[in-house]
Every structure is written in structure tokens, then in C-alpha cells.
């Protein structure tokens, strides 16, 4: 684990991770559950840094059956998936909490909207700097480098520090 940057807190058997434990990857993704022979095995949950999770049954490190839950509480179901279909394009938070009135209040789920660093965009899971082409999470931790497709999508669709369309400008420029 020294070489991978991962950590483990839990039961051992014959110097191998076995029993109940918590295995944390360098990406801050965390597995909590049963281990056998150093692998995820039995019931366990993967918690992702963005707040989503996968709860399931594992067999020798491979997920066999489970449920993925998005950060807003929506559970993914492979069959009878009714979310965001051709007839109802609302987001899960809109289905659960209703729609806000049209206009500026629709910019974000936060009231008031999150302040965006100068020259950056809010791309949903963090801030995007089009000059460096880097996405950092909302605590300024590196998430990823944007490829050409993501760069174009963010520039075209995401809210910018100064929004020319709505006239939104943060009260305290960063």
C-alpha cells in the first residue's frame, strides 16, 4: 500500500486484509465492508469523493450485484429507469423538491449561487479554468484535465464568473 498511496484500517488474517475494514484509495474513494485475501469480498460500499456511492456484493474484488446512488439521492436502476427519459427531462432534485421560478433562481441549487473564481466556470463538480484547462473541486483540489470535448461543452453550457446572458456577477470578485 505504500507504493499505491492507499490505506487500510481493519481486520487482518495471516498478514492479509480479511474481515471488516476500510480501504481508502489515493483518489479519496473509500471502500467500507468485508475483505477476503486482500480483496473486496462480501457486502461493501464504495464511497466516492463527490458524495455518490455504490453498495453491493463483491466476489474476489469484482462487484456482482449492487446499487449506485448519485449525490442527490437518486438510485440508478438498470431496468425501469424512469429518470430523465424522453417524456420527463427534469433533474432528480427538481422531481423531489419542485422547480424554482424561471430566471436567475434557476442558475443553481444554492441560494445565493456559489461564487466562481475570476475567469472560471462552474461545471457542476468544481471550477474549470479555461486557460490551464484544469477542473478543481470546490475545495480547490485537482480533479482532472479537460479534453477538447469537455472544454467546448463547459465553455458552451456552464455558468461563468461573469455571466453575459443573465448579467449575474458575484458581489465580491475573487
TrEMBL record:
Keywords: Cell projection, Cilium, Flagellum, Repeat. One of its GO terms (cellular component) is motile cilium. It is found in: Cell projection, Cilium, Flagellum. SMART domains: MORN. Coiled coil: none annotated. This is MORN repeat-containing protein 5.
Amino acid at each position: 500500500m505504500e507504493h499505491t498511496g492507499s490505506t487500510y484500517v481493519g481486520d487482518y488474517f495471516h498478514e492479509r486484509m480479511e474481515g471488516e475494514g476500510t480501504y481508502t484509495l489515493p483518489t479519496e474513494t473509500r471502500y467500507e465492508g468485508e475483505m477476503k485475501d486482500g480483496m473486496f469480498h462480501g457486502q461493501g460500499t464504495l464511497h466516492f469523493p463527490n458524495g455518490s456511492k455504490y453498495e453491493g456484493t463483491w466476489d474476489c474484488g469484482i462487484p456482482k450485484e449492487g446499487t449506485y446512488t448519485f449525490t442527490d439521492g437518486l438510485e440508478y436502476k438498470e431496468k425501469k429507469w424512469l429518470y430523465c427519459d424522453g417524456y420527463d427531462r427534469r433533474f432528480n432534485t427538481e422531481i423531489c423538491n419542485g422547480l424554482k421560478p424561471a430566471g436567475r433562481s434557476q442558475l443553481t441549487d444554492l441560494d445565493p449561487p456559489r461564487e466562481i473564481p475570476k475567469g472560471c466556470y462552474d461545471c457542476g463538480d468544481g471550477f474549470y479554468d479555461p486557460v490551464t484547462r484544469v477542473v478543481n473541486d470546490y475545495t480547490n483540489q485537482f480533479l482532472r484535465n479537460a479534453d477538447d470535448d469537455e472544454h467546448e461543452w463547459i465553455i458552451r453550457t456552464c455558468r461563468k464568473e461573469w455571466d453575459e446572458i443573465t448579467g449575474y456577477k458575484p458581489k465580491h470578485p475573487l
